[in-house]
Amino acid sequence: MKALTANRLSDGDVVFWNAGQWVERFADAHLFADDDPAGPEAEMAGKGQPTVVIDVYLIDLVESQGVWTPLSYRERIRALGPTNHLHHGKQAEGGTVIAALQQAHGASRSTGRVNLIKRTK
């Protein structure tokens, strides 16, 4: 499975694609099967919004005990982590995302903010 993600241009927050629009919570992201032809179409639609988002790309997901999380450790922190929003922010509203983050090798114990947002020159 895959999810489409980007950085919102106005504030740098990570956002996710769902039904033709960007949503703030990973739990609300549309999941694309690996063979789903809508994935690349959504990616092109997202890239067609350069005044809204930057760095549009699909990320690989993995399922563990019924919870989908990004496969890459970096993407888990970026999508779910406390380094993305103060007080776990928007990502904490949904319960299972914090449990998913705790499986990411202790990343939930981070207390600082880490800049993981790619910047373009």
What can you see in these coordinates?
With 121 residues, this protein is of the alpha+beta class. It has helices spanning 38-47, 73-80, 96-102; strands spanning 2-8, 14-18, 21-23, 53-64, 67-70. The chain has a five-stranded antiparallel beta sheet, sandwiched between helices. The longest helix has 10 residues, at 38-47.
- The helix content, as a percent range, equals 10-25%
**Computed structural class:** alpha+beta
Beta-strand share of residues: 25-35%
The span between the termini is 31 Å
Please give the count of helices.
3
The ordered string of helix (H) and strand (E) elements is EEEHEEHH
Major sheet: 5 strands, antiparallel
Regions with pLDDT < 50 over 5+ consecutive residues? 83-90, 105-116
* Count of individual beta strands: 5
**What's the alpha carbon Rg, rounded to whole Å?**
14 Å
Strand order of the largest sheet: 3-2-1-4-5
Mean pLDDT: 75
Sum up the overall morphology in one term. Answer: globular
Provide a compact summary of the structure.
With 121 residues, this protein is an alpha+beta fold.
What are its keywords?
121 residues, 5-stranded antiparallel sheet, 5 strands, alpha+beta, 3 helices
List the helices and strands and how they pair.
Elements: E1 2-8, E2 14-18, E3 21-23, H1 38-47, E4 53-64, E5 67-70, H2 73-80, H3 96-102
Antiparallel strand pairs: 1-2, 1-4, 2-3, 4-5
